[in-house]
Amino acid sequence: MGSSEHEPVPLDAAAAEAPVLGRPDARTDSVPCNLCGADDPEVLFEAGVAQEGRVVRCRGCGLMYVSPRRRVELADYRERGEGEDAGWPLSPSSLERQRNQVRDYRHSVRAVAEAYPGGRVLEVGCCTGAVLAELKRLGMRCIGLEPNGWACRYAREEYGLEVAPMTLEEAAFPDDHFDAVLMLHVIEHLTDPMATLREIRRVLKPGGTLVVETPRYDTWSFELMGRRERNVVDDWHLYFYTTETLRRTLEKAGFRVVEKRVPSRTVVPSRLIGAVAKAFRLRFLDRMAHGLARTRVNSWLAFPLNIGDLLRYHAVAEKGGGTAKPGEREAVA
Q: What are the pLDDT digits (tens) for 18-27?
């Protein structure tokens, strides 16, 4: 989970492993809007058109989400085991992508380290801990949570990090415990983002910072690609935020946004080819991507790409409530 994003699964294997409605991890009931609570959505894509679940948009506030749900990532991890046995190993190309993406978060890592020197930081969904390790190198006291037990072991063995295979709610940290919390490419996977954000606000000290990043959908790429957009087709994505719906979600949970960034992402050729294969269900391209991922030339050709489809907010915890205030900064990186 977390800043890893998912390595493409071979299309035949993905179809074979798709949950069947009625299994314990399948969610068959409709889901109300996580932002405004309404249960009157319009259907954007029926189940099977973009991804396994049906993608809808709230008529009241505009939040896009999956309802009903056919796949929940945490359940997928835990049907393979509990604790250290949950989840599955990451491939060498996934591990390499984790390391490559450290540069993508350099601005936020430095901002946190400078704002809270020697402070306590938590990453929710830290995957292998590559980003958290950078904060540790800068003198921060770091804790990670990652439901994939294999990734937890890697984070401990490779970086010497304190990482536990559990969710934030399961960790039950004390109030006002952390100076900063990172949640990078996690919020779109959660079954109840609002509850998790409120729990983050509880464990953050007053004035502490949350850094959250997720794909966004008020973009030309979503208008152009629609049901084939690279993040919509991900069966583990349950929520799809725009600049406005994510800001409103953070404010409702008790945060004040102080900075917005539209960041770039380090990509390799196999990832680009895999995204096209997944969007258009082209198995020959999928096989090509997996073959390329095993070669050294793939990593040699890594480069930054920014098509404006990612959104990162820095937000300050306001214990008194979630009233919006002026002062948000905006940047493109």
A: 333 333 344 4
